[in-house]
Design goal:
Elements (H helix, E strand, L loop, with lengths): L3 E8 L3 E3 L17 E2 L7 E2 L1 H13 E7 H6 L13 E5 L14 E4 L2 H12 L3 E5 L2 H8 L5 E7 L7 E2 L15 E5 L2 E7 L3
Parallel strand pairs: 1-8, 1-9, 5-6, 5-8, 6-7
Antiparallel strand pairs: 2-10, 3-4, 9-12, 11-12
């Protein structure tokens, strides 16, 4: 079974979007370098960020997101982002009207079902959980093995929290990766059990 990783870009004060659901400068590091991060050529990062991020992205088999992220991105037009094989969407609503049933997206009603489906689809590859409310629910359920953050030097003051609505303490191990890129600090923590 693969590792379950909670992942996202985050402000220094712990937000993944502002009050208007806008990421502001959180993704600027993805266009602040000269090394293409994917085949599209739209994402260019520093060599340091590439060396840290690309091997991780190559190991992702499934990404779990909430319906809110799915709707904000228009379901990535039916193509999972970053070359991921499948996306599991946690939602109490059905797929959008006219949605292509052959698209590799799976709509489920809760995080436990999402995790079971994602693990089945991912095999021994990484199950990535998007930071935010769904990521916080997966963490609270004790299902996250690792937390990865791309910390961007900006303070939002308020907005959508990286860990969603988690209100209990969860201990992380000391960081096992601290990598400085252009306009980003990549951090990786194991979750203590």
């Amino acid at each position: 079974m693969g590792t379950v990783v909670m992942y996202g870009s985050v402000s220094v004060d712990g937000f993944i979007a502002d009050e208007s659901d806008q990421p502001g400068p959180l993704f600027e590091w993805l266009s602040g370098g000269d090394v293409p991060l994917d085949d599209s050529g739209a994402l260019t990062v520093s060599q340091t960020s590439y060396d840290y991020t690309r091997p991780y992205w190559d190991r992702i088999g499934v990404t779990i997101v909430g319906r809110h992220v799915f709707d904000l991105t228009d379901g990535w037009d039916g193509k999972p982002p970053g070359g991921v094989d499948h996306v599991v969407v946690v939602t109490h609503r059905p797929a959008p009207e006219g949605w292509d049933p052959a698209a590799p997206f799976h709509f489920v009603g809760d995080v436990e079902t999402a995790m079971a489906r994602a693990r089945e689809l991912a095999g021994d590859r990484v199950v990535e959980v998007a930071a935010g409310d769904v990521g916080g629910q997966v963490l609270a359920a004790g299902l996250v093995d690792e937390v990865r953050m791309d910390v961007v030097p900006v303070v939002f003051g308020s907005g959508k929290r990286y860990f969603g609505s988690v209100h209990a303490q969860h201990l992380l191990a000391d960081p096992d990766a601290v990598v400085r890129g252009n306009r980003v600090l990549h951090l990786r923590y194991r979750v203590r059990r």
